[in-house]
Each structure stands twice: as structure tokens, then as C-alpha cells.
Design brief:
With 281 residues, the chain is of the alpha/beta class. The chain is 31% helix and 23% strand. Bound molecules: fe (ii) ion (FE2). Residues 44, 46, 72, 98, 100, 189, 191 line the site of fe (ii) ion. Fe (ii) ion binds at residues 44, 46, 72, 98, 100, 189, 191.
Amino acid sequence: MLEIGKLNCNTLALAFIFHIIVLVEVIGAPPLMALAAKYGIISDVHANHTAMKMALVHLEAAGCDAIINLGDLVGYGAQPAECVKSIRALPNAISIIGNHDRQAMGEKDERMRKTAAKVLEWTAQHLTPDDLDFLRSVPQGLVVEEAFILVHGSLVERDAYLLSSPEITRNMRSMIEDFPKSKVCFFGHTHVPMLIGTKAVVTDLQETKMFKLDPNEKYMINPGSVGQPRDKCPLSSFGIFDTKNWTMTFVRKPYDYKVAQKLIIDNGLPEKFARRLALGI
Ligand SMILES: [Fe+2]
């Protein structure tokens, strides 16, 4: 069961009860479709600034008016400050927080693997107080004008991985019952691009592909991971959501992962986080 906080214009809140997400509705903000026609959707950048720069350049060239960042800007990679600065510098960006971002700003999660937690200790030391304040200001979920939902993990449990059939069913049910007016829920966390509808789930997204969406259908969409893809494809993964033509494009693009790997090793971070970038695991 999911609860929604109702707050005044642009007031965002962070809250959760027994690991159940409390999403925050932004009341009075302009409808999302009026804010932008084309959204660049990025998630799980994980301090991979080489991949992030490539993705942002591509999204700007593709005519995106705004960027939606679904969380986990930091962790695993060696350029957390550069990634936070890049998102803060964007004129029109909406961010939500991820579990690695939360750990970097001091919210300990005992389930975090030791090597990942070690990198986040290093990350916290390499962020400025301003960067940490920015992360603290980012909400953990957003519902914008009832039409779009943004979460990092899943709709019904903050850090659940939305991959299995039972989890997909549980979330789609919540989407239908708890958010009858919402058409699309964007999520991240699994690092696997996915298009979930009520009738079909698409997971084979290792090449750039555009989908025409049905305006009467509900979708849950994961754009994949910009900085640490895990679908056995090392290409960076992100998306373009066109609200005029009602299309979702999953973009797969190469970047120079050797630069990101070298930075991880040169900074003394675990080598396995460098190795996996070449494999997409
Ligand atoms: Fe992540």
C-alpha cells in the first residue's frame, strides 16, 4: 500500500514508513507536458562522468527540453562530484534520490554490499558540502500532476528490484489501483532497460529502439543505466520520452569506458567495478 503526501507548491518531502515509499505530489506545478515536450530520461549514472557527458550531449542534440534523473548519480565510479555538478548545472532537470545517493549522504543501509559501501565512504569524502546538500534536497519519489510517477526502485517498496514477474505484477496492480490517473511510471535501480505494459514486457533492448505508446495503456519504464549497464551489453543506456507523439525511445550508445575504468583504478577503488563496465554486468 502506498501513501502520497499532499504538500504545497514545490514543497518536497522525504518520508517512509516500514520501507514503504511515501511519494510526494507537487501541487500547483505546471503539467509535465507543459514543462517539456521531450524528456531525456537518465538513471544509475553511478559516478561515471564519461558516460554521463556522452548521454547528455546526445539528449541535447535529440532536442530534449528537460532531463529526468531517476537516482544513483553516485557510487561505484570515480567521478561523483563531476556527476552531481553536471546535474546541478542543467537548467531544466528533475531528480529523485537513489539508494547509493542516500548512503553517500550518510543514510546507512545494512544491506549494501561491503565493497559498494566502501566506495560510498570514499564518495562522501569527495563531495562538497554543497553537493551533499543538493542530494539531501532531492525527493525519493515524485508524482507530477498525477500523470507521471518517478521512483528509483519500485512503487510499492522503496529498494525492491522490479525485475521478476511477481514484482512486476505487484507494481502494475499498484499503478492501476493507487494511481488511476497516472499513465507512466519511470523507475531505475535494476540497471536493466525494460518496457512494462499491462499486456507485455519488453526486455530485449540492447540496440536503440523507439516504441509508440498506447495513450489508453499504463506503462512502467526503466531506461537502463547510463554508467553501469547490467544487461550483458556495455553500451550506455538511457531514454527519450516524447510527450507530443507519445513515444519512448531506448537509446544504447558507446562511450569510452576505458577512461572510466582507469579513473576507478587510479583512485584505488575496487577493480571489479572497472572490469564490469567492459562486460555490461
Ligand atoms: Fe544503481
